[in-house]
């Protein structure tokens, strides 16, 4: 495992990631959106098909993706961005089951 990968293993919070990659941030934005920012960052990484193998280039790409993920929530909010599956769920559906079928 590379030093970069070892470093990433030690990061646990959104603030840790932002500080490690030296992304300037407002604590109030991160406080409200920390999980959304990290999930969006993860999603951006997963969608990147041409991730560099060289450590410095990979670190640079990660910095850009984290910056983008953070900025998504500076200019928007969690409800609008719909990062998590729960935001994509439809309204509850009602199903009718006749009483005589319940006791079969």
Estimated helix fraction: 55-70%
**Separation of the first and last Cα atoms:** 60 Å
Largest sheet: none
Number of DSSP helical runs:
6
Question: How many structurally independent domains?
Answer: 1
Briefly note the structural class of the backbone: mainly alpha
Mean pLDDT: 86
Which regions have little confidence, pLDDT < 50, spanning 5+ residues? none
**What fraction of residues sit in β-strands?**
under 5%
Report the radius of gyration as a whole number of Å.
20 Å
Order of helices and strands: HHHHHH
Shape: elongated
How many E strands? 0
Descriptive account of the structure:
By secondary structure, this protein is an all-alpha fold. The chain has one domain (3-102). It is built from six helices and no strands. The protein has helices spanning 3-10, 14-20, 27-47, 55-74, 78-81, 99-102. α3 (27-47) packs across α4. The radius of gyration is 20 Å and the shape is elongated. The model has no long low-confidence stretch (mean pLDDT 86).
In brief:
The protein has 104 residues and is mostly helical. Helices cover 62% and strands 0% of the residues.
Which key features would you list for this structure?
104 residues, mainly alpha, elongated
Architecture blueprint of SSEs:
Layout: H1 3-10, H2 14-20, H3 27-47, H4 55-74, H5 78-81, H6 99-102
Helix pairs in contact: 3-4
């Amino acid at each position: 495992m590379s030093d970069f990968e070892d470093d990433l293993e030690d990061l646990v919070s959104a603030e840790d990631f932002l500080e490690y990659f030296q992304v300037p941030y407002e604590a109030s934005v991160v406080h409200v959106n920390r999980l959304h920012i990290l999930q969006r960052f993860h999603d951006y990484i997963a969608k990147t098909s041409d991730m560099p193998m060289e450590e410095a280039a990979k670190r640079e790409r990660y910095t850009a993706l984290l910056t983008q993920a953070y900025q998504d929530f500076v200019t928007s909010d969690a409800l609008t961005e719909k990062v998590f599956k729960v935001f994509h769920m439809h309204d509850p559906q009602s199903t009718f089951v006749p009483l005589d079928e319940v006791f079969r």
